[in-house]
Amino acid sequence: MLPRVSLVKYQSDSASLQKALQLCEGFAKLKQTDRVLIKPNLVAWEDRYPIAPFGVYTTTRLVEDLIILLQDFGCRHISIGEGSVQIQKSVGTMQAFEGLGYRELEKRYDVNLLDLNKSKTEKFVFHDDLSLHIAKDAVDCDFLINFPVLKTHGQTKVSLGLKNLKGCLKLQSKKMCHHAKLNLEYCFSHIADFLKPALTIVDGIYALEKGALHFGNAYRKDLIIASTDILGADIVAAKTIGYDSGDIKHFEYYAKRHDRSLLLQDYEILGEKLEDQITPLKWDWTWTADNTGPGIFQKFGITGVALPKYDDSLCSGCSPIANMANILVLSAFKGRPLPKVEILNGKKMQARPGYEKTILLGNCIKKANEANPNIQEAVEVIGCPPSEQDVVTALKSAGLEVNETVYHGYMKEQSRKYDGKAGFEQAFFQA
Ligand code: SF4
């Protein structure tokens, strides 16, 4: 029998999720006594400039629908676990739970909220001496429900079921996945070898272009994709946003190890016709031809400074400051060439010749360029990740007259960009 994947239109109540689970027989192996863990995608939380939730977070509405269906089935041991990235110090998973209405779910349905960043971990070796430390709460549960969002990703093209499991890793393992020599997608594709989710539900009420955070654009899509087969769910979900399975490296790594097919014809799709549900979404950000900055630099005629494009070694800790550096450099441009400064991030970029100063954002890139003869003067921004204030100070010390209020204004604008737009309802993210 072919693995079943359901593809169902969301119709404003819990009947949609129920139908998706019935079609793929999502609860066929569930027992009433099982300790169930739901793993949504609550990627990160920001207090200062709340992240616009559409296409970024699993909708609280569908998580609540799932809890009701589980309790109707007879399950009484239900937990929700996530290990959100900390963009701000001490602002993480519990703040995401707070902000997205999970405290109300906790009270209303007596479910447990778990910060997987704080869970004990179990070690799984996956490559020579490299290992993944996975939250024991996820390893030890009886029925893991993986609940990602239908989104693209600037490093991995899509971020669906296989990628969502990265939130179950200990922080050091999350960082290690962005290895300077190994491929990011190769590393995280192994998590599903050890966790083996019983069910994957892709929340496609909103779909996100140029994700994984809110700097791209979300679209109302009203789809639910579900399967007991994580690869099947991912292949069908990716296709609905325009990606063939052969385009996605982490699908290939997983399929090869498990001797699985990447062909759609080897999956039974139930519900909507897949060909009627495809809307291609872009994943990538354009960069100048000489790799000196985002496409907008060329449009504005910005020269002198260079911000090479992020690579897959840039981990979520440094990702916000790399984005911030782009905006700050834009703010420094007054129509004249900017100082000859190169700004590097991640774990493997190498300074190029011709720049008077090289700003190294974070401990990793500092180490990677320790012996680089192209560097005339290094401006090291220490930290893992470094602080925003230290980044601003470094840019200023390199002669870039950056204006922080421009950055704050940009972040506020991103935060509110869907306000008043039809179809973008905050109620989906409240209990
Ligand atoms: S310095 Fe930055 S890229 Fe390196 S591990 Fe820390 S957060 Fe990640």
Largest sheet: 10 strands, mixed
How far apart the termini lie comes to 38 Å
Total beta strands: 17
The CATH architecture term of the largest domain is 3-Layer(aba) Sandwich
Question: What share of residues are in beta strands?
Answer: 15-25%
**CATH fold-level label of the largest domain:** Rossmann fold
- For this structure, what is the CATH homologous superfamily of the largest domain? LarA, N-terminal domain
The helix count comes to: 16
Bound molecules: iron/sulfur cluster
What best-fitting shape do the alpha-carbon axes yield? globular
Structural class: alpha/beta
Mean pLDDT: 97
The level 1 CATH classification of the largest domain is: Alpha Beta
Unreliable spans: none
Helix content: 25-40%
Radius of gyration: 22 Å
The overall number of domains is 2
Walk me through this protein's architecture.
The protein is an alpha/beta fold and 431 residues long. The protein has two domains: 4-283, LarA, N-terminal domain (Rossmann fold, 3-Layer(aba) Sandwich), CATH 3.40.50; 295-413, Rossmann fold, CATH 3.40.50. The protein contains 16 helices and 17 strands. Strands 1, 2, 4, 6, 9, 10, 11, 12, 13 and 14 form a ten-stranded mixed β-sheet that branches. A three-stranded parallel β-sheet has the order 15-16-17. The protein has a two-stranded parallel sheet with strand order 3-5. Strand 10 (149-153) and strand 11 (157-159) form a beta hairpin. The longest helix is centred in the first third of the chain and has 14 residues, at 60-73. The radius of gyration is 22 Å and the shape is globular. It starts with a strand and ends in a 15-residue tail after the last helix. 51% of the residues are buried. The mean pLDDT is 97. Iron/sulfur cluster binds at residues 175, 314-315, 317-318, 346-347, 362-364, 384-385.
